[in-house]
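Thread: Newbie trying to understand structure tokens

Hi all, I'm a second-year student working on a class project, and my supervisor (Dr. K.) asked me to get a predicted structure for one chain before our next meeting. I've only ever worked with sequences, so writing a 3D structure as a token string is new to me. If someone could post the tokens and maybe explain what I'm looking at, I'd be very grateful. Here's the chain:
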Amino acid sequence: MRSTATSSARLLLVIVAICYSSATIANASQFSTDAAYSVFGSNGGSFGSASSDIDGTMFGSPDLTGGWITYSGNVTNFVSTTFCDEGICFVIFTGDLNSGSVSFGDSSYAFQGQITGGTITGSYYVSFGAFYETDVFSFTGAWNNGYQGVGGVGIIDVAGGNDGSFSVSTTTPEPGTIVMFGSSLVGLFGVLRLRRGN
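---
Reply by user tm_fold:
Sure, no problem. This is what the structure looks like when written as tokens:
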């Protein structure tokens, strides 16, 4: 009987420790409500997709100095107009980004999200291949620790090099929610103990 009580007490301590550590993580200040990051370099993209290096943290946290951002959007309502003068042709194009994927991270963090809306605009010379495109879109997704985030991206692709920024607003779980979850676990433990005793 005594060993059963000791086991029960140990289990209760484990549950309380898990709830406390979860509340501590949720209260951590490594994620601010809003943060913004600059983007530069890496591979140029085309028509709603690109991969760029995260150049630095403009404000907020976490500090993402390093890593990358990659996105691939599904372009709809694509319209292009060609202008030619003395054998040199110039194309202007526009389109909508209503879906697709976006991710950013490195070896220590990761974010996976979906594009919720945006546009592409740009131009290029047919003969010379010089290319210019601006992609602007919003997204929603989650960090690898489960925190939810929404944000926006604005990237300019000029002749194979990218420049721009993105921002993300992160929602962290309320400590009260985690404590309530822990309380329900303790209650469930009590019910199971009573049943086991009968």
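A couple of things are worth pointing out once you decode it. The helical segments are 2-27, 175-197. Residues 31-171 form one domain. Feel free to ask follow-ups in this thread.
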